[in-house]
Design a protein that fits this description.
The protein has helices at about 20-25, 70-85, 135-145, 180-185, and strands spanning about 5, 10-15, 40-45, 50-60, 65-70, 90-95, 100, 110, 120-125, 195-200, 210-215, 215-225, 230-235, 240-245, 245-250. It has about 250 residues and is an alpha+beta fold. The chain folds into two domains: about 5-145, Aminomethyltransferase beta-barrel domains (Alpha-Beta Plaits, 2-Layer Sandwich), CATH 3.30.70.1400; about 195-250, Beta Barrel (Elongation Factor Tu (Ef-tu), domain 3).
Length: about 250
């Protein structure tokens, strides 16, 4: 399958420039900016308490770094980055660029999505692309890839529970960043007690529907496609017959 320019609505591209741009971001985000030499980098900004605030894709663009983030999070992210900037030689500006993505041979200037091969390539263009034709929700559900504002909830989610290690979104060797101490403690636990998991549903339910097991809340259903969905589960309660609204829920 090939697509040469499907437009991704709901995304904003920020440009971060200045001599200290890489050092500035390196001390804030969950991934290692030295990886920009090899392509795009997936990362997040966390609160000091280790909770998710925003996730984004970073890519080098000449003497600047482009930051691809959900539009709903862009304004707040710009404000927070500006607070951290202090006197650093860094400029943070919005752009009018559009996100294009697709499969097959990547066009000039495109890069592989670093989260998962199933997400294809991504590129930034001045002109909008075609209306969406690919069922991206089906791809996300099949590969358990969370989305900003759906499974990834600001001031609530923890990135390790949301699969950031599997999605190449965190580096445990890069050194300090905001929220690093909490994230490192979670990494060295024996196992996570909560997290995202794929489930099978007997019928569609509204996003955010609670999952019950034996009358106790076991989690929440989020994105769904083709009778399957992404859920956030308490693993100790996800052992028997589960229910979400009128739907039967089974862990895959």
């Amino acid at each position: 399958m090939s697509d040469q320019g499907e437009d991704t609505a709901g995304r904003s591209i920020l440009r971060i420039s200045g001599a200290e741009r890489e050092t500035f971001l390196q001390g804030l985000v969950t991934n290692d900016l030295r990886r920009l030499n090899g392509g795009a980098v997936y990362a997040a900004l966390l609160s000091p308490q280790g909770k998710y605030l925003a996730d984004f894709l970073l890519s080098a663009d000449g003497d600047s770094i482009l930051l691809d983030v959900a539009t709903s999070l862009a304004e707040g992210l710009m404000r927070r980055l500006s607070l951290y900037r202090l006197r650093a030689d860094v400029r943070i500006e919005p752009t009018a660029l559009h996100v294009h993505r697709g499969f097959g041979a990547a066009p000039a200037g495109a890069f592989a999505d670093p989260r998962h091969p199933a997400l294809g390539w991504r590129a930034y263009r001045e002109a909008a692309g075609r209306a969406p034709a690919i069922n991206w929700d089906a791809i996300r559900v099949a590969h358990l890839i969370p989305e900003s504002g759906i499974e990834l909830i600001p001031d609530e989610s923890y990135i390790l529970e949301c699969g950031f290690e599997r999605l190449n979104g965190v580096d445990f060797r890069k050194g300090c960043y905001v929220g690093q101490e909490v994230t490192a403690r979670m990494k060295h636990k024996t196992e996570l007690r909560k997290g995202l998991a794929r489930v099978r549903l007997s019928a569609p339910v509204p996003v955010g529907t609670p999952i019950l097991e034996g009358g106790k809340e076991a989690g929440t259903v989020y994105t769904q496609s083709g009778g399957e969905g992404i859920s956030y589960l308490r693993f100790d309660r996800a052992t028997g017959g589960m229910q979400a609204g009128d739907a039967q829920v089974t862990l895959i």
